[in-house]
Design a protein that fits this description.
Elements lengths: L2 E7 L9 H9 L3 E2 L2 E8 L3 H15 L3 E7 L7 E2 L2 E3 L26 E3 L4 H10 L14 H16 L4 E7 L3 H4 L10 H20 L1
The structure holds pyroglutamic acid.
């Protein structure tokens, strides 16, 4: 059975949960249109994150890779169009790395586009009842590192995989600790990501 690799990050920045992993865990083992979803939790660590995802790609041989992370404060599920070749962390990662203005890949291209059908995925999420929009920046922290690093790895290895990154809002229990922060129910986000996966599968079948 063809596979979709779906990843979420570990908690970071003082949070006890990360909605991206909560969603991935809910979808682990699901069969969507004859495809199996394999989920994994990724460390918020500059070097381990890519190593871990690359090992999973080698082990499971997925044809679709969707990496997800939390973007606290965003109000919608946001597939990222592009990752840039820059690590400029506003705070240390969970392993204590704190690069400022450093390249992810020395001499690599300035940016890598997602190879997922991001607009069709946004549309499918909306039709499923989950607020979603296309984003043109994944920031300069770990999520951007993966949004750049994974499509870049796939391009260099010439693998037949479509891949990209999706940012996820806070869960209500996270937003409740702050004032005026947006959030989205887990159920709605799971629905949206499932619809996005379906759109990616349909796109590959076309
Ligand atoms: N979000 C962070 C890194 C881990 C995560 O879930 C980011 O947006 O870069």
């Amino acid at each position: 059975m063809p596979k979709v690799l779906l990843t979420g990050f570990q908690p970071f920045g003082g949070e006890e949960i990360n909605p991206s992993w909560q969603i991935a865990a809910k979808l682990h083992g699901s069969i969507i249109k004859g495809w199996e979803v394999v989920s994994a939790e990724i460390p918020v660590a500059r070097f381990e994150a890519l190593d871990c995802i690359i090992k999973l790609i080698q082990e499971h041989q997925p044809e679709i890779v969707i990496n997800m992370g939390q973007a606290g404060g965003r109000s919608e599920i946001t597939p990222e169009r592009i990752g840039i070749n820059l690590d400029d962390y506003g705070a240390p990662d969970n392993a204590g790395n704190h690069p400022r203005d450093e390249a992810i890949e020395e001499g690599g291209p300035p940016a890598c586009f997602s190879t997922l059908p991001v607009k069709a995925m946004v549309q499918a999420m909306r039709e499923a009842g989950a607020p979603a929009s296309l984003s043109n920046t994944a920031g300069t922290y770990l999520c951007n590192h993966v949004a750049y690093g994974i499509p870049r790895y796939i391009a260099k290895e010439e693998l037949k995989i479509i891949a990209g990154f999706i940012h996820i809002p806070f869960l209500p229990q996270q937003a409740a600790k702050f004032r005026g922060r947006s959030s989205m129910a887990l159920e709605t986000m799971v629905l949206g990501i499932r619809a996005g996966i379906e759109a990616a599968i349909v796109y590959l079948a076309e």
